[in-house]
Design a protein that fits this description.
With 157 residues, the chain is α+β, with helices and mostly antiparallel strands. It folds into two domains: 50 residues, no CATH class; 91 residues, Gcn5-related N-acetyltransferase (GNAT) (Aminopeptidase). 29% of the residues lie in helices and 22% in strands. The chain contains four helices and four strands; from the N terminus they run ααβββαβα. The chain has a four-stranded mixed beta sheet with strand order 1-2-3-4, covered by helices on one side. β2 and β3 form a beta hairpin. The chain starts with 14 loop residues before the first helix and ends in a 19-residue tail after the last helix. The model has no long low-confidence stretch (mean pLDDT 87).
Length: 157
């Protein structure tokens, strides 16, 4: 059987491929506690397409003199399953940390996500960064049930 299978890359729309992705999405809902969608809702938002678009939004916190003291970089993209987002970076200058700048930046980022009707948003941070974890949790981010595995194409030394 394995010899009969060929692998190719999707070059355009294919209703049978879209149906596979809808089935996958519906089956995966059984494993998570997030809101469930009907088949019709998934079919309406899901597009199996070879390309997607994205946007960068860089939110900047400035002091009274207009100097930047913190940044929050938000990436929006639609891979075909609805608008998604990642908070790619959050940084606050050490001398102003503890004053709520990170929380305000993340709150503004989540307001952007709500305005844009983002269907999924993620943030990557270290478990040993309590300040970042606190800012993200205050904005409604929470750990998920998924395991995240990474592949880093680093040269072997």
């Amino acid at each position: 059987m394995a010899e009969e299978i060929r692998i190719d890359e999707l070059a355009g729309e294919d209703p049978e491929v879209a149906a596979l992705l809808v089935d996958l999405t519906l089956q995966e809902q059984d494993h998570y506690t997030h809101p469930r969608e009907t088949r019709e809702e998934v079919e309406r938002r899901l597009r199996a397409a070879p390309t997607f678009t994205g946007e960068n939004h860089l939110l900047v916190a400035r002091d009274g003199d207009g100097h930047p003291v913190g940044v929050c970089w938000v990436v929006l993209f639609d891979p075909g399953t609805g608008l998604e987002a990642e908070i790619a970076e959050l940084y606050v200058r050490p001398e102003v940390r503890g004053g709520g700048v990170a929380r305000r930046l993340v709150a503004e980022a989540t307001a952007l996500l709500r305005r844009r009707l983002v269907t999924f948003a993620a943030v990557w941070t270290r478990g040993d960064n309590p300040a970042a974890l606190s800012a993200y949790r205050a904005a409604g981010f929470a750990p998920t049930e998924q395991a995240v595995l990474t592949w880093l194409p680093l040269p072997k030394g």
